[in-house]
Design brief:
single chain, Ribulose 1,5 Bisphosphate Carboxylase/Oxygenase, Rossmann fold, four-stranded antiparallel β-sheet, 26% helix
Length: 290
């Protein structure tokens, strides 16, 4: 597809958008979720949600239920997201936000982890590079794959049947040799991401419970799943609040002025719903829309 002028580019896929597409009868082509537009009156860049469908009556009907000119409060937006998640599989709830950051500067990047109080609703496979007592503790905690030299050899051959790779400090010299294999997959253990740990048992439990890593892309956007559409509204709002608090807590020192520029929530196959960035900067009221 030809790149359109003004479209925000990203070398990372949007979180959650691949899941279940083949199971849905509707056919879509996707363009970038975020598109920079020039406001003629104020000259400010604003970000809008944009998904383009080919021949889906279903998507057209869903999109008509969203007021494209309205900025929704979080509770109302979450209620609408759940209502519009009508695919044949359980869709993922996602937050996509444009932040006031220029990630080419080291002090304007976010790479961190967030522990969602109700998890992500997704079952993940955790691999741990450890040996001895720490390896035994990781297994008891529920790690799916545990090893050292054997696991290093497996990874070097391109066999990476896991979602998260944890490493103990003694394993890091071996991990350094796997950078070319793990880096492009986003699986390289890092202290910033909480995936280098001296307590693998506790870390395994945290990731199994819904802890996840996220980072800004090269345009300063974040794309983070925060639950499933079959969660209750209260659960999704509490997860969204934890996520927004995490972003604020990890505000880069190089950020000047407001951090949030715009934000959109959506389900995997649903239209974008614009949220009030001011509400995300403050405390989200956990209440349902009746």
């Amino acid at each position: 597809m030809q790149k359109q002028k003004g479209t925000v580019d990203s070398d990372e896929p949007l979180a959650g958008t691949a899941a279940g597409k083949e199971e849905d009868e509707d056919e879509y082509t996707w363009e970038r979720l975020f598109e920079k537009k020039e406001d003629e009156s104020e000259g400010e860049e604003v970000v809008s949600s944009r998904r383009q469908k080919v021949s889906s009556k279903r998507f057209v009907a869903l999109k008509e239920q969203v007021d494209g000119n309205k900025i929704y409060e979080a509770a109302e937006g979450v209620a609408l997201l759940r209502k519009l998640a009508t695919a044949k599989f359980v869709e993922t709830a996602e937050l996509h936000a444009k932040l006031n950051l220029d990630p080419k500067y080291n002090d304007q990047q976010i790479r961190t982890t967030v522990a969602l109080p109700h998890g992500t609703g997704k079952s993940i496979k955790v691999a741990v590079l450890a040996e001895g007592p720490m390896a035994d503790a990781a297994r008891e905690a529920g790690a799916d794959i545990v090893g050292m030299d054997d696991l290093v050899a497996q990874i070097s051959e391109g066999d990476m049947d896991f979602d998260i790779l944890l490493a103990t400090p003694p394993a890091m010299p071996k991990v350094a040799k796997l950078g070319k294999v793990l880096g492009p997959k986003g699986l390289m253990p890092s202290p910033k991401a909480g995936t280098v740990t001296s307590n693998p048992a506790e870390t395994v439990k945290e990731f199994k419970a819904g802890k996840q890593e996220f980072r800004t892309d090269k345009e300063g956007n974040i794309h983070v799943p925060f639950g499933k559409a079959d969660f209750t509204e209260e659960q999704l709002l509490e997860n969204l609040m934890a996520l927004s608090d995490c972003v604020e807590t990890n505000r880069p020192t190089g950020c000047k002025g407001k951090l949030w520029k715009s934000s959109v929530i959506t389900s995997t196959m649903g239209p974008g719903i614009k949220l009030n960035p001011d509400e995300l900067r403050g405390k989200i009221k956990v209440e349902t829309v009746r």
